[in-house]
Amino acid sequence: MQFRTKIVDFAVALASGAALCATLTLILARGIDRGLESVTLAEEQLALYLTMETNVSDMLRLYITAAAAPSDAYLSRLRETKDAVQRDVEMIRGIVADEVEFRGEGELEELERLDRIEVVLRDIERILDELAFDVRGPLPVDALAEPLTRAVEALDERLAPLIDLSIADDAGEVLEARAEIAALSRRSVWIGTIAGLLTLVTAAVGVFALLNTFMRPFGSILEGATRLARGELDYRIPEGGRDEFGRLSRDFNVMAVQLERSDRALRAEEEELQRRVAARTAELEDANARLSAQDATRRRFLADVSHELRTPLTVMRGEAEVALRLSAETLDEGARAALGGVVEQSEHMSRLVDDLLFVARREAGEAPLNLSRVRLGPLLERTVTDARQLAEGVEIGLVADAAAKGTEIEVDPGRVHQLLMVLLDNAIRYSPDRETITVEARRAAGSVEIDVRDRGIGIPAADLPHVLDRFVRGSNALPGGTGLGLPVAQAIAQAHGGALSIASGEGNGTTVTLTLSRPVDPEDGGPA
Length: 528
Hints:
This protein is 70% helix and 8% strand. The protein is an alpha+beta fold. The longest helix has 89 residues. It is elongated. The chain starts with a helix and ends in an 11-residue tail after the last strand.
């Protein structure tokens, strides 16, 4: 049987039990309502009989009073009392008619009794009407005796027994109805208790059966999922019957088989991938070793070539200078110009070779520096003064307070001068006429920072990450450069343990910041 069918059957059983309880409760409630209605009708009828008996007595008394002492007031009260007696009869007849409709033909006897009561009342009223009194004067006693005697006899012998019998019947009906209500109440309690217990037992048995049917396969599936999560892909759960859990257990085992196969395939692929990665890693390590060796060879070659070129360049320049001095009177202007060009180009080549040699030694960690402690102010002023001689139409301004100018730094003054001259030369070359280049120095915690700021053409964003690479020139660079200036400046900064940073935007100028460490002086809390 399908688990869903079991749940539906259980729900139907509970609904049937609830419907049965509701039906029994409704039946008992309707019985109690009928009993209450019967009690109400009997009590109303009993009260009307008592009221009618009182009104009849009042009517007889008013007849006697009006006959003995007639007056308009007594006659008016007598008519009201007679009307009241008639209303009582009509109301009792209405209640009896309701009882006949409510209880059936068993109440016809009471309706016949009421007819007899009404006949007796008419007889009494006819006897009393024989008095024929009016307001002209009282009747004599002899005229009152005989009719009153007959009226009292009719009241006592004929009307009173009928009313008493009706009152007794109504009182009995009240007691009977109340007894029936009490019995129905007790029966409803027992029936409700039994129905509730049966429903509770049915619910408990059904829930236990459903839980037993549900928890065993669910527990097996949960155990299987836990084992699979721990990596036991060969675990299989017991397959159930033909219900939903049976299908689920079979599908679970199929899934476990597929997972096991996929895991085996993945493990095989992982092993193959690891093998390939190991092979590629070995190849990369070998290639990296070869590249490292080639780079070391390149650096050594560059350093060796630079070192070897220095001597012949020096000799070439010296020979040209000697020739210019010793043969001044024998050389014509063309020869002297040629020898001057040789001297100039040899000096340029010597500086270029010296820069290349410094960069190569810096990459090898062997950059030579002649360190000394100097004050920052004189070094900057000398550099700016030298740079102003190169500037035509461009103003170079120095901004530094007394504290910054008085700061001592331990550097190679020549190399730092060379670094700043590279930065200023670039700023001059790429600044329009009548612009200002600013050199700004400031103290920082344990260091000094020097900004060289221009408002020139700037560096394109695509070129900015590569401007510190050797022999790389920007896309908007002017002709005539070698692409070695900024790399040399960076090498000098790094050799001093400092840093070089560039901020620029095309058309927005360039700011190059040099950061150099400085000794701690007394103003900073330590020795100078």
